[in-house]
Write a structure and sequence with these properties.
242 residues, alpha/beta, six-stranded mixed beta sheet, four-stranded antiparallel beta sheet
Amino acid sequence: MGAAVISMQGVARVFETAAGLVRGVSDISLEVERGEMACVIGPAGSGKTTLVSMLALLDRPTFGTYRLEGLDTATLSDADCAHLRATRLGLLSARVGLLPHETVLQNVALPLAYGGVARAERLRLAEEALLAVGLPSACFDVRAEELAQSQRCRVAIARAAASKPSVVLADEPTRGLGREDEEMVLEALVRLCDAGATVVVATCDEEVAVRCDRRVRLSGDGRLAGRVPLASGEGAGERGSS
């Protein structure tokens, strides 16, 4: 733990629609410290994906400030944001699929190219990440569309972890998974956190939330409803247990 890696103050995101202005999230102020595994929990439509998109620099706040590792993200160009996503951020999402016609190795190695990593190093990092999540080298040349669900989950985790990001953002990472695959994803996130990454998980699943060090709740109107207190025995020391 230490200085805040993620700091949002008074953040709101407003969208223009045919029906008028719609607020995705409102008045979000939160801090996540280095090495923390934090959770944002809320019902569908509460703004979790909007919040993760801003944290991942895929979208920008309409109001408020967002600092990432001390950088005021409002001062960053689109190119700066893309570089940070490629080098400092890992994104794991139920909504971000693999490239079906590309091989497992290519799916993991390709994002590293956006960070300027040389081809030989991309392949080395991709292989290392895939082996770390339990995929044997025999799978590396298999197309993603040919994989079983549990194997696709492992490839997605390897892709998020290959660049050794300082921040990992997981948006509903266990949605639609069976219990065994869900447990595998959570254990992988815990390992990333234990290795030094700061992890933020957005979920509507209370069972996922209790695995995190700290939890904040979004209400249905996209506002923070406050911190969720940790029950006795929960927290960093219990990340690995269900």
